[in-house]
Amino acid sequence: MGIFVTEECTGCKLCIRSCPFAAIEIKDNQAVILDNCTLCGSCESVCPVQAIKIEKEEKTKDFSDYKNVWVFGEQREGDLNSVVHELVGQGRRLANKLKENLSVILPGYQNIAQAKELINYGVDKVYLIDKKELAEYNDEYYTYVMAELIKKYNPSIVLMGATTIGRSLGPRVAARIKTGLTADCTSLDIDDKSKILLQTRPAFGGNIMATIVCKNHRPQMATVRPGVMKAAEKRENYEGIISKEDLDLSKVILKTEVIDIVREIEDSINIAEADIIVSGGRGVGSGENFNLIRELADTLGGAVGASRAAVDSGWISHDHQVGQTGTTVAPRIYIACGISGAVQHLVGMKSSDIIIAINKDPGASIFNYATYGLVGDLFKIIPLLIEQLKSGAT
Ligand code: FAD
Ligand code: SF4
């Protein structure tokens, strides 16, 4: 693509205001496009004499040099984030469909044990970058490492968790290597014909699911919501290799420095990682009534979730919210109590293995997704369940 200004330009300056990147100047009564122009096209339509032209390349690009699926091996203090195993599971499926390899790119410090562990989950190659500077996450170092290795090895797909780190790193890497990024995907697949990555995520407030493709740039990059994809299973004696990469980090100009790390004190279980979740909705009726939901969760050894209606009513904090604007979960058992099953709630829990719904309205849409449905008043059903569970009945 290219942009140029034709002789018709009158120097009226209308385009200057339209440019969100301040990338136009007037020199000698003519608009001049500066180097920081992103070709966003905002100026093209405002020019009254159509003097700004953006040429779009039509020719099909050859991406035959780009191969293999990569996962970013996010870790903190030597522990891999659980989303890495989910991405490895999904990455394996994509790589198998493409008949390509699955690799994990693993920046960190003294992280050889993590690399070996990843091979046991069906990873063909781990690119290991073992440097003291990479012990803690740092935007500049990690962006440099990712971008350099992507440029060196040309993967066709790069996946990261839509975690705090992934959400910071993904766009920086994509901008550095000039490719696209689809944030917060909830499903990924390969188009059978074109072999392009189909990246699906909720759009327009969750009312539709949009499938996005990256046709003209490589690699195809996506961040993926934690808890949505099934984690990879352990495969004993899987044969993969560890490739040690030596990068000169002294070239990186640091604009930030980690001085101290202050840990947040968590007063609740992380629902994204809970095996059993008991969630309450508007049907629970009050904050006090949530004690019943907590009692059932405690009896089952699970965590407490909630719908947005319950959170917005102030009955429980936002950390517990499940759904599009809350946490995405995929526990073994999800019990929805007094929750109607709005699409924004469903998108955050429908991958659960077993869904049990308790609702007094037999027409509630949650029942369309439930493995087991109990029609009735939750204030009668839950105490009976607790009593049975406490008495040891199964
Ligand atoms: P309701 O829809 O009011 O359902 C209450 C249910 O309780 C009813 O089905 C009723 O039959 C049942 N009930 C009542 N009393 C009893 C009883 N005694 N026993 C048994 N059942 C009973 N929602 C989320 O949950 N998570 C999100 O992340 C989220 N994000 C959103 C983002 C956007 C942009 C928008 C627009 C909405 C979002 N929502 C989200 C809101 C969502 O659309 C619904 O409004 C919300 O999920 C409804 O919560 P609910 O099912 O608890 O309440
Ligand atoms: Fe020139 Fe068109 Fe920009 Fe006016 S809007 S300065 S005519 S390019």
Descriptive notes:
The protein is of the alpha/beta class and 394 residues long. It has three domains: 2-55, Alpha-Beta Plaits (2-Layer Sandwich), CATH 3.30.70.20; 69-244, Rossmann fold (3-Layer(aba) Sandwich), CATH 3.40.50; 276-391, 3-Layer(aba) Sandwich (Rossmann fold). Helix content is 24%, strand content 24%. The protein has ten helices and 21 strands. The strands form six sheets. A seven-stranded parallel β-sheet has the order 11-15-10-5-8-9-16, with helices on both faces. A five-stranded parallel β-sheet has the order 18-17-19-20-21. Strands 12-13-14 form a three-stranded antiparallel β-sheet. The model has no long low-confidence stretch (mean pLDDT 91). Bound molecules: flavin-adenine dinucleotide (FAD) and iron/sulfur cluster. Residues 205-206, 281-283, 307-310, 321-326, 338-340, 342, 344-345, 348, 358-361, 364, 377-379 line the site of flavin-adenine dinucleotide.
